[in-house]
Amino acid sequence: MGAPAIRTQGLTFAYRHGRGINDVDLEVRTGEVFGFLGPNGAGKTTTIRVLLDFLRPTAGSVSVFGLDSHGESLRIRERTGYLSGDFSLPPSLTGAQVLDWLSSLRPNTPPVRREELVQRFAVQLDRPMKQLSKGNRQKIGLVQAFQHSPELVILDEPTSGLDPLMQDEFHRFVRDYVAEGGTVFLSSHSLDEVQHTADRVGIIRDGHLVTVETVDDLRGRGVRRVTLTVAAGSGDAVEGQLLALDGISDINRRGDVFEFAVVGSYSSVLAGLGQLPVIDLLSRAADLDEVFLSLYRGTDA
Amino acid sequence: MIAQRFPVFAQGVRDRRKSLVWWSVGVAVYIGVIASMWPSIRGAAGLSDIMSQLPQPILDLMGASDYDISTGAGYVSGELFGFMIPIFILILTIGAGAAAIGGAEERGTLDLLLSHPVSRRRVLLQSAALVAVEAVLFGIVIVVTLAIATPLADLQIAFAHSVGAASGIVLLGMALGWTALAIGAATGSRSLALASTGSLAAITYLLGSLSGLVDFLHNAKWVSPFFYANDGAPLVHGYTWWHGLVLAGAGAVALAIGIVRFDRRNLSN
Fold this sequence. Notes:
The structure holds two protein chains of two kinds.
Chain A: E1 6-15, E2 18-28, E3 33-37, H1 44-51, E4 59-64, E5 67-68, H2 73-78, E6 80-83, H3 95-104, H4 114-120, H5 134-146, E7 152-156, H6 164-179, E8 183-188, H7 191-197, E9 200-205, E10 208-214, H8 215-219, E11 224-230, H9 235-244, E12 248-254, E13 257-262, H10 266-273, E14 278-285, H11 288-299
Parallel strand pairs in A: 3-8, 3-9, 6-7, 7-8
Antiparallel strand pairs in A: 1-2, 1-4, 4-5, 9-10, 11-13, 11-14, 12-13
Chain B: H1 2-5, H2 7-36, H3 38-43, H4 45-53, H5 56-61, H6 72-81, H7 84-107, H8 110-114, H9 120-153, H10 159-187, H11 190-210, H12 225-230, H13 234-237, H14 241-264
Helix pairs in contact in B: 2-9, 7-9, 7-10, 7-11, 9-10, 9-14, 10-11, 10-14
């Protein structure tokens, strides 16, 4: 007990042609869903490939269950399920054959959850891979990652190709899985997905880990979107006053309708708005992607 | 049992089962056709005269220096073992070797495999076993076909010599198949493995056949795997067994280098 599911310290991987990841310190606790969020090319997949010993770090250390990612990789992989972003399966094998074959690579752990997964995701087991749609192949990928009920499951963009219904089912499944004691590391570029499933979120950008926060904290960063309608013809005057106001950013204007983000104290912003010829005011919690964008802008330097 | 202890090997066999059956049929038919022509060729004594009038260097270049038309064994040896049979087995084993790891990496199936508790070394060794089994199967097809054809076409090939000649071919296929496997594992590229092993075979074949022609290439035959597979017409005179050790050793060295390089490198995705 005690060792985190995943811990990286100063993890750096440099590709020959640049990019990669730089000095990433990450800790994933057992029993949580950790969302690993970032745009394509930010370094999510690179990080995952180091965890699985496909890539050897240029610098820094990685441990999974307290085991060294290289020297003890086999013991790590005994206890870890994985679904890669763009995996391929042997085209002539049926779903059942694929799952049997992959099971034979884990002789010590029976596929105890296969039946349940096949039911929940309505997986087609009797058709060869080449006849299945992207979404149906993706389901096979999900089943193989979870069927042995591993302690840790690492998923790279797991819902790509799934229809919205199945995505929902998947999100519920992941929540159930951690409720039963599993740990899930889920990389995604979709904030929506992470918002629905993750306990904590790490945001990676250009190979740097920008922040790690709980989903609640991230959403509660005070960011709210406000749509403000002012008296006809007063738009120009209002624009100047808004620009002078502290605590708002990202102002968009369409005539007499403004849209902006409140990033500071809400009450002081409201006090400032009180001076304006307000006709209507609509306020809502920002989506994670708006938070995300504001974070990204914040780190531009 | 095999499927459980050697899952990578077992899957490889399943993958290639169909094509192996067709290969076996094709090779057996080819050997059968060549063998069935012997009774009529033997009668055409003129051919033997023409061959005997060709200067030795020309025969060497044709890969036909051992092409002794006066016996059935000599005919089959020259017609099959000098060129076509080696080409067939190399297409089979180099293809299998290059596909096993380099090909899996290019197709994107290697990731999935190696995310399971299977070491890279195990994957490579089981792939090597697959290549070896394909080569041996090829050898068995040769021996069986010749055993059937010998009495039918009155070839007078000694069974022991047929086993010896087939062994040379099997070891040739294994050595170069393992080389392709090792290059694929070291680079992650099937096409590179195919191209470099194929060129290696072509160049050494050429050097081997030129070595009897060109004085300064006299020693070049020693680098040719074809020399160790087929020198001295094993089908007629029996296989020189230490030649087999050279081929097996070369294959093992290639594998060892492949394991080290594969173990140490970063996988591409």
